[in-house]
Structure to design on (475 residues):
């Protein structure tokens, strides 16, 4: 990770780690870590230099997300989802006064952005909506949405909501509305009691939002999704899952070192556990290289909207998500075999219970199958650029 | 034990670990605290076993930031690393 964020990421990770067990146990939002993220300026890190921010690249955000994910995966996911939305604000928001004011709030106050994309009755596809924008008065927009998943709504300052352009628009003709939390009525519809990533508190809500028209992002959601929201989200989620894998690998390494101590006299033959750790590290390296490469690929193309909107880029960004979601389960499982009973126990310092549960969220919370189905529709049109 | 005596004891344990696992070209007892170990046959592979033996002997785990070539460069550097790790525990 670049030096300008490493120390701050480590400081926030320390706070996140201290509360990770409690956040997981109680399925509550990682409030302490969110405060630390804000205090260290990491929620505003990606605001471009031209708008007075630090202009963190996706590669830099990826490094931060991994450090956070190793400490507390839920905190990492909040960071990842926030920047998936934050990047859309300045890349697609346009010059509207409302959007500009929100960017300043992210930069100056570390305003936390959440999102409501999927919709009940649509089935997990963020690229279709049934709810539509209404115009209750000149300059005002309103939307009512039955949202099965809004993560960390309890901590968010703004929720970005997808909706059809108007009541006559097609399901896929969507806009994105950035609505301050004070202008949304949130009626909880479901709880969040899951196996893992419990601190994301991804509850269902009926949202009723009414705000200024100037909070509508300028670009349509098709462009926002393909050029920014999807690639940034996939890379940053994968970066968090890489962090989960790193933390499990650290535990395995510590166990191997403990086992080898005193057995050093056995001579040059590596122990079976050390061999397994060496294999694990080879897989972890491949995982990390794939994630960082995807981040750098985005950074290299960040201003090339045609390339970002192209089929081969979409294939690659779906692929990194799908393969990372499998890799994290594989690596945590390998680590568990190496650590043995101390990792299997829930009451030991080496327990890998939380990492294993969080790891399984990767393929399920955002369905690998749906992304593979998307890629299945695209593979006939373009071969991947490798 | 005084600070100086404690350091002497640490150095004795480090010499013992080097003698058993260091594969030095000279006797570990004859190596001065400041002598460059890599100059007397020490290698990074041997350093792994010396590290493990020291962690075992002192009941410590070196933090990653101390697992550098410089830490294993001399008996004095190893003694410093042991005392820093112990202080952080």
């Amino acid at each position: 990770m670049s030096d300008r964020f490493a120390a701050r990421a480590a400081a926030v990770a320390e706070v996140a780690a201290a509360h990770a067990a409690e956040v997981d146990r109680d399925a509550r939002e990682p409030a302490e870590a969110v405060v630390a993220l804000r205090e260290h300026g990491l929620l505003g890190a990606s605001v471009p230099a031209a708008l007075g921010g630090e202009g963190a690249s996706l590669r830099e955000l990826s490094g931060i997300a991994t450090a956070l994910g190793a400490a507390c995966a839920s905190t990492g996911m909040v960071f990842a989802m926030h920047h998936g939305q934050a990047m859309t604000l300045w890349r697609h928001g346009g010059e509207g006064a409302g959007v500009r004011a929100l960017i300043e709030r992210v930069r100056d106050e570390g305003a936390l952005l959440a999102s409501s994309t999927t919709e009940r009755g649509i089935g997990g596809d963020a690229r279709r909506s049934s709810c539509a924008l209404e115009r209750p008065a000149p300059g005002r927009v309103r939307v009512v949405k039955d949202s099965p998943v809004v993560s960390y709504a309890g901590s968010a300052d703004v929720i970005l909501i997808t909706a059809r352009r108007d009541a006559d628009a097609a399901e896929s003709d969507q806009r994105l509305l950035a609505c301050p939390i004070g202008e949304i009525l949130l009626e909880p519809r479901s709880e969040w009691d899951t196996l893992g990533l419990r601190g994301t508190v991804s509850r269902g809500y009926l949202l009723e939002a009414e705000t200024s028209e100037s909070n509508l992002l300028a670009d349509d959601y098709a462009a926002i999704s393909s050029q920014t929201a999807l690639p940034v989200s996939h890379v940053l989620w994968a970066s968090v899952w890489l962090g989960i894998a790193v933390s499990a690998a650290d535990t395995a390494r510590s166990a191997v070192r403990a086992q080898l101590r005193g057995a050093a006299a056995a001579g040059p033959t590596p122990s079976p556990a050390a061999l397994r750790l060496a294999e694990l590290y080879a897989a972890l390296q491949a995982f990390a290289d794939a994630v960082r490469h995807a981040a750098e690929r985005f950074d290299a193309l960040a201003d090339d909207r045609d390339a970002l909107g192209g089929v081969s880029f979409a294939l690659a960004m779906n692929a990194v998500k799908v393969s990372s979601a499998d890799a994290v389960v594989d690596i945590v499982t390998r680590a568990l075999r190496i650590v043995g009973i101390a990792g299997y126990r829930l009451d030991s310092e080496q327990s890998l219970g939380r990492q294993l549960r969080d790891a399984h969220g990767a393929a399920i919370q955002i369905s690998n199958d749906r992304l593979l189905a998307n890629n299945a529709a695209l593979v006939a049109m373009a071969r991947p650029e490798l | 034990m005084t600070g100086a005596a404690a350091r002497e004891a640490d150095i004795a344990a480090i010499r013992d670990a080097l003698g058993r696992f260091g594969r030095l070209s000279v006797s570990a007892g004859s190596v001065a605290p400041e002598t460059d170990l890599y100059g007397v046959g020490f290698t990074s592979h041997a350093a792994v076993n010396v590290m493990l033996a020291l962690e075992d002997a002192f009941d410590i785990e070196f933090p990653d930031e101390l697992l550098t070539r410089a830490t294993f460069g001399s008996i004095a550097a190893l003694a410093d690393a042991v005392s820093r790790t112990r202080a952080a525990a």
Remarks:
- The mean pLDDT of chain A is 94.
- Chain A touches chain B through ten residues (CB under 8 Å).
- The beta strands of chain A are 113-116, 140-150, 158-164, 174-180, 184-190, 203-212.
- The radius of gyration of chain A is 21 Å.
